[in-house]
Amino acid sequence: MAKPSSANGRTRSHVQIFIVVGMCCFFYILGAWQRSGFGKGDSIALEITKKGADCNVVPNLSFDSHHGGEVSKIDEFESKSKVFEPCDARYIDYTPCQDQRRAMTFPRENMNYRERHCPPEEEKLHCMIPAPKGYVTPFPWPKSHDYVPYANAPYKSLTVEKAIQNWIQYEGNVFRFPGGGTQFPQGADRYIDQLASVIPIKDGTVRTALDTGCGVASWGAYLWSRNVIAMSFAPRDSHEAQVQFALERGVPAVIGVLGTIKLPYPSAAFDMAHCSRCLIPWGANDGMYMMEVDRVLRPGGYWVLSGPPINWKINYKAWQRPKEDLEEEQRKIEETAKLLCWEKKSENSEIAIWQKTLDTESCRSRQEESSVKFCESTDANDVWYKKMEVCVTPSPKVSGDYKPFPERLYAIPPRIASGSVPGVSVETYQEDNKKWKKHVNAYKKINRLLDTGRYRNIMDMNAGLGSFAAAIQSSKLWVMNVVPTIAEKSTLGVIYERGLIGIYHDWCEGFSTYPRTYDLIHSDSLFSLYKDK
């Protein structure tokens, strides 16, 4: 971990971790081999760790062991702390499961080589990832929306390759993000205004969005001010550091690609999905990629496609592509959209917008008459490393309406109201909310910087029903809610119904992100979940 230049703002050189043990919180600070230069929040956490947290702030706490078995005598030699040396400098941006060298050994068909390919046991690193030379404290939000220190992600290729498209500019010792994109060189705000003339973005109906092939995530960054939170993803490819730039800006993003395996999100999760010149061949593979978007898009949700082949009759010369190819590509897209019961709401300039039907029963009847192949899996949320198929995922049968955000945050989620999550009742959900409100209040008494902008990118490693994220909800931060693939209950769909975002992940593997991208990590009941795994 490199020494930050300042104790102000937020710093990821010492990431704070809340670990809930029993019902008491402890703070841990990562960065054992850094000796100085940490911020006020880190010193608070260190002091609390030394003294022991005041657990009286949450009454009725149990400190009994939750694991049976005889307690054996601890060997003094074995109990000594293990020291992890720093890795070689070439590993400053190492991403274990998206390593560039390993990727090149896999097939390129359908972007297989850009998917997750984790190292075997003998290739795993057991050292601390170093920061790049000159690494400094990231700018606090909202300054980070527009500026990233050059030293933190020292890659200039996009400033040249995307210069005329206003993606990113290099100015002195910082990168500036003007808000442009390949499809919106005039700025993301103006582009979003166009979408909002068709899609109900202003009233909270649309809260969660999926940006496929996000670039530097300017679309997601500018949606934030409209109270829409986007899960952006892009592969680790020749466009170096796209997702790294997004996270340095304080915008939710992961490394990912639409390839051969299903997206790590639940069915009927997003209110809107978006592709702006994302280079995904939507008409290929018998519409398989559109079917995967349909799986993760909730009934009534919107799909936005801007750029080729939309309105090809006018644009084919500017795109320098044969009009016959573009015509065939759009024909296939329109055909698949009709099959999925998506209604086209608008086609203007290079932007087309479809809406997924709310009438799932009549859609199912029409699809059956058309001999559509339905996916055979009994669990549409069982997606971890599962292959994508050319089939339609039936929408989940749930009761209750989606409330507009922020009312949605504490309304009863439809999946809970309909009893779709075994073992979780309305009462269970309400009690969980009360518990985490109490815990977050306790956290804020221990660390008074929680809602100051000091921590922007937050992760909950075992999110449950998303109640920690709901309790800490603020315009100054966002939470990546992770539901482990081995969790007893599949609750990620509930988290999205609350207007929050998250992802499935197996913590036996590396997470799909770059080093140094989270400010605070929260964990509850994770070690017990993975005990003996």
From TrEMBL:
Q: Which GO terms describe its molecular function?
A: methyltransferase activity
The record's EC number reads 2.1.1.-
The enzyme's first-digit EC class, named in words, is transferase
What is the superkingdom listed in this entry's lineage? Eukaryota
Location(s), subcellular: Endomembrane system; Golgi apparatus membrane; Membrane
* UniProt GO BP: methylation
Gene Ontology cellular-component terms for this entry are: endosome; Golgi membrane; trans-Golgi network
Q: Any idea which UniProt keywords this protein has?
A: Glycoprotein, Golgi apparatus, Membrane, Methyltransferase, Signal-anchor, Transferase, Transmembrane, Transmembrane helix
Regarding the membrane, this protein is recorded as:
Single-pass type II membrane protein; Single-pass membrane protein
Which Pfam families does this entry report, sorted A to Z?
Methyltransf_29 (PF03141)
TM regions (residue ranges): 15-33
Its family remark reads: Belongs to the methyltransferase superfamily.
- The protein depicted here goes by the name Methyltransferase
Please tell me the species this chain comes from. Glycine soja (Wild soybean)
Organism placement in taxonomy:
Eukaryota, Viridiplantae, Streptophyta, Embryophyta, Tracheophyta
